[in-house]
Design a protein that fits this description.
Order of helices and strands: HHHEEHEHEHEEHEEEEHEHEEH
CATH class of the largest domain: Alpha Beta
Helix content: 40-55%
Structural class: alpha/beta
Oligomer: single chain
Shape: elongated
Strand content: 25-35%
Number of helices: 10
Number of domains: 3
Radius of gyration: 28 Å
Number of strands: 13
CATH topology of the largest domain: D-Maltodextrin-Binding Protein, domain 2
């Protein structure tokens, strides 16, 4: 078996030229050319048509490539897995996540991850936009969504996200506490992603669902701003549970209409699909799954 020559042939085809393949292997182009020539001699048939800048498969070469390429890829993956099996994860992990989630939840989780894996570095980009992981060179993303659109990514669900209502103690002392969802129409409301100063809150409790139209003079697309404006006494507004719970514990906010809430989607860890997932990604994935279990499956 001419395993090395077969691997050289596959790499030349995948790279598109002897020059590009030689650059990846860091060997002279002539070394690869001789390897492919030995393979062609052994098979007694030409596999490649060579030109100055690129190569083209012959019919026999195409048929041979289609048969052997998956096996060569499998051998590469097996070698990587074997090499990583007993090694501690190391290197830089590039992570992108929503700004609000990073501030409220992920900072603590990432700190504990860094302590557990001292040979790894975390490069965290907090952004409101949806990052293209492959094109922009990110390893993983934490995303909150009701439906993930990119089917080329592997997704691992971390938690459900639930919206609840809050207000400051000062606001409640001044305006009173709403007792029913319908009473919200009499209150100042702080809106998340409003449309012309209006929004609808699909409140649910024990199977009772009520879509309540509300209005307000202040709105934002950032939960961190909604939280700050609620603290200042501007009105009643929605926050995810992971944002509101610490505020209630510190007595900066109080729950409004306890028990009424609405599901807004799920939190996922996503990463590019591949035959072999790098160890740094798998340990990060497993750590996040473990960490988010402490939230009871809901945020």
């Amino acid at each position: 078996m001419m395993l090395d020559e077969i691997a050289v042939f596959v790499q030349v085809v995948e790279a598109g030229s002897f020059t590009a393949a030689a650059r990846k292997r860091a060997v002279p182009k002539s070394t690869l050319s001789r390897g492919v020539a030995r393979l062609e001699d052994a098979l007694r048939t030409p596999l490649l048509q060579r030109t100055a800048r690129k190569v083209a498969l012959t019919d026999a070469g195409r048929a041979f490539f289609e048969r052997v390429a998956p096996h060569v890829a499998g051998l590469r993956d097996a070698a990587v897995v074997a090499g990583e099996r007993d090694e501690a994860p190391r290197g830089t992990l590039r992570v992108t996540a929503p700004v609000d989630l990073g501030e409220a939840v992920l900072a603590d989780v990432f700190t504990r991850f860094a302590a557990r894996y001292p040979q790894m570095r975390l490069d965290v980009d907090l952004s409101t936009r949806v990052v293209n992981l492959v094109e922009e060179g990110f390893d993983v993303a934490v995303r909150a969504s009701s439906k993930l659109k990119d089917s080329s990514l592997v997704a691992r669900k971390l938690a459900e996200t639930t919206m609840m209502l809050y207000a400051s103690p000062a606001y409640v002392a001044k305006r009173g506490m709403p007792r029913t969802p319908e009473e919200l129409s009499k209150h100042e409301c702080v809106l998340f992603r409003p449309v012309d100063g209006r929004a609808e809150w699909p409140l649910a409790k024990d199977g009772d669902v009520r879509t309540v139209p509300v209005s307000g003079r202040v709105g934002s697309n950032e939960f961190s701003f909604v939280r700050s404006i609620l603290r200042s006494g501007a009105g009643v507004g929605p926050l995810p549970g992971f944002f509101g719970a610490p505020e209630v514990a510190e007595q900066r906010l109080v729950p409004v209409l306890p028990g009424w809430s609405w599901h807004t989607g799920s939190l996922y860890l996503v990463y590019p699909g591949a035959r072999h997932i790098p160890k740094k990604v798998t340990v990060f994935r497993d750590f996040l799954v473990e960490s988010f279990r402490t939230f009871g499956g809901a945020l």
